[in-house]
Amino acid sequence: MKLSRTNKILSKMKEQGINQAIISDPYSIFYLTGHLEHPGERFYAVLLDENGNHKLFVNALFPIENDLGLEKVVYSDTDNPIETLSKVISDGAVVGIDKILPARFLLPLMQYLPNSKFVDVSLIVDRIRMIKDEEEKELMRRASLLNDEACQRVINSITAEKSEKDIVKDLLAIHEDLGVEGLSFDPIIGYGANGANPHGTVGDRYLKPGDSIIVDMGGIKDNYCSDMTRTVFWKQPSPKAREVFETVLEAQKRACALVKPGVRFCDIDAACRDYITEKGYGEFFTHRTGHHIGLECHEYGDISSINETKCEPGMIFSIEPGIYLPGELGVRIEDLVLVTEDGCEILNKLNKELVVIGE
């Protein structure tokens, strides 16, 4: 197990009077053990114990040969893993349960342990995962730089003869060539009016002169996610399109410049939102400014108007304001930022100034 991470969780559990915790989120298990498994419908969890008697419950279908630093409790499909789990939890203990554990496992466990108290332990784990350690920071830097290169190649691949779907095919081939291990999310390629839907469906659309092109993409490298958006234009953008682009770009730069320890997420959101509103496009910025990222593309925490949480060194999140004009165009610009001791490091280095292609 990764002891520094485990001990942080155990310390917070002790503060809150939690004796044991069942961690069933595969990404949190990877965070603690270095082993990633997707068990489907089968029970898979780490039991963290205040006395150090940690255990990993795993079905025999998923053999783990490596020593993960904790006892493995292996069960078969004909066993009852919840009954086995209940026997290593003291009836009357305060037991932490994460938000991923299905009711089909939790409800029988509660019946086995009628005198135990079950509490949500997710915030403890999520908040610790929010603060990336040095190993994670370096992995996130590498993933983002790889995504920069992939995004530039995708933009270079755009031609009048290619539909949105064709560009996604190019993207997948580029990822394979670069050694990217998978997608952080389904990529978004939005031409013109389709870009006015922030999560528009990729289709058979072809480019028209003046179209905006949203390229929102991310890949997985060494289990960590990248995520970025660039907007470019096909041939000559209209004066209005240029104004929209420059408004989003300035809003994004203002928000990035604000990031440092102690700054509230709602104030970062306001830096984008207030400027876009001042320019007359406030109603067309229809989503939060950003989200946290790491082992998963969307992790706990967001950059929104109602989140008063303050930045801390080690946090990594997106800043991605956008303006979406129905029937016309969409513009979004997104970077990942790492909060440092005295400011922030922007992980994406790819040019985000206005680019016109196809001329």
TrEMBL record:
InterPro entries: Creatin/AminoP/Spt16_N, Creatinase/aminopeptidase-like, Creatinase_N, Pept_M24, Peptidase_M24B. Pfam families: Creatinase_N (PF01321), Peptidase_M24 (PF00557). PANTHER family: AMINOPEPTIDASE, AMINOPEPTIDASE YPDF. This is M24 family metallopeptidase. The lineage of its organism: Bacteria, Bacillati, Bacillota, Bacilli, Bacillales.
